[in-house]
Please model this.
Amino acid sequence: MTILEAATRESAVTCCGMATTPVTEEDAARLAPMFKALGDPVRLRMASMIAARPELCVCEITPAFELSSGTISHHLKTLREAGLVDCERRGTFVYYWIQPEALAALSALLAPT
Model:
């Protein structure tokens, strides 16, 4: 388990809904990069596409956007670095999947109670 994975897993457990408890400095530092990554419409759509399936090939993501392959790669890298998705190269293709712990952490923060 990487440090980012450990931090993401921890944040899903320690973070409380911001409607009931102020966000701690540590939780804010862990979760802000995820929100920042999702703040871009293209990355939000990509994350949604990836989350809707167990895994998704980059070859299925690229046609959904009128962007260069370099720009697609940049957005996917940003999602990876934020801890929202992970990937694996298989031959010439890269497959992506959502990090459930990251979604759980974001959901816990946004939960109304």
